[in-house]
Design a protein that fits this description.
Chains A, B: Catalyzes the reversible hydration of carbon dioxide to form bicarbonate. Chains A, B: It comes from Streptomyces uncialis. The structure is a homodimer of 161-residue chains. In chain A, strand 1, helix 2 and strand 2 form a beta-alpha-beta unit. Chain A has a 5-stranded mixed sheet, with helices on one face. Chain A starts with a helix and ends with a strand. The first copy, chain A, is 37% helix and 18% strand. The first copy, chain A, has a single domain, classed as Beta-carbonic Anhydrase, Chain A, CATH 3.40.1050.10. Chain A is built from 5 helices and 5 strands; from the N terminus they run αβαβαβααββ. At the A-B interface, helix 1, helix 2, strand 2, helix 3 and helix 4 of A face helix 1, helix 2, strand 2, helix 3 and helix 4 of B.
């Protein structure tokens, strides 16, 4: 049995207790942008219930062009009005540089990435950088955003000012 | 009290029962790419535990350049080897066209998006499209990928072949 098959088995248990469809627009008008890290269960960390908030996740929780795309769809079509950013301690994005990552790929597969890997060196500063990108985007019209660092050792969120 | 403050209160409860740091690389060597939809609690749908899998999410669960970036970091730096895609019924991405979305934004804020909104018209076909993009990317070197549609009415995953 593959890993995916095992998780499909878990889905049968989930569906057996499922209580039916909720509305499409997020009930709490919130969009969360968080790192893809395996240790971050965003629903549990924030006590979210199904239907509360959009969850956007990528490597680092970066405000990339694609995160902007998702936030614009979230705000314009589905009515979210607040953004909550979650980065975290012990992040993989702190362990390499963009240049070395791109060069390694170039050596292995022949083609150099035409995109920025978005590594960073300072967690709090990267959260501030993300908020600055939100403020600067002409497409994100609702600018209410707060940024946090999740501590993978304690489970706590610390706000970045 | 704002919505964010309320969720920060929930985080105190979460942290009080937190059991300490896990390893950085995903234990099950899995990366999930899913839609940002508020009704999709990926940990619960798949019975994932903290530390099992990377979770990448955006509007539609699309394989965009940023999803490729995240998958490449997931595979090269953190050892994941399987990709699981989750789209879902009643998706917001079925409710508009890219052209009308970009024109609406152009009329409201003056600047036309230079990115594709990635709307689609056929759920199963969009899952297949995503898998094709994975297969075609020179940067994603581990191609093992399966795609599913989550039914927001029943809680069940249906595999797209």
């Amino acid at each position: 049995m593959t890993v995916t098959d095992e998780f499909l088995g878990n889905n049968e248990t989930y569906a057996a207790a499922f209580s039916g469809p909720l509305a499409l627009p997020p009930r709490r008008r919130l969009a969360v942008v968080a790192c893809m890290d395996a240790r971050l269960d965003i629903f549990s960390i924030l006590g979210l219930r199904e239907g509360d908030a959009h969850i956007i996740r990528n490597a680092g929780g970066a405000i990339t062009e694609d995160a902007v795309r998702s936030l614009v769809i979230s705000q314009r079509l589905l009515g979210t009005r607040h953004i909550l950013l979650i980065h975290h301690t012990d992040c993989g994005m702190l362990t390499f540089t963009d240049d070395e990552f791109k060069t390694d790929i170039q050596h292995e597969v022949g083609m150099r990435p035409f995109w920025s890997p978005e590594s960073f060196t300072d967690l709090d500063e990267d959260v501030r950088q993300s908020i600055r990108r939100i403020k600067a985007s002409p497409f994100i019209t609702h600018k209410s955003a707060r940024g946090f660092v999740f501590d993978v050792g304690t489970g706590k969120l610390h706000e970045v000012k």
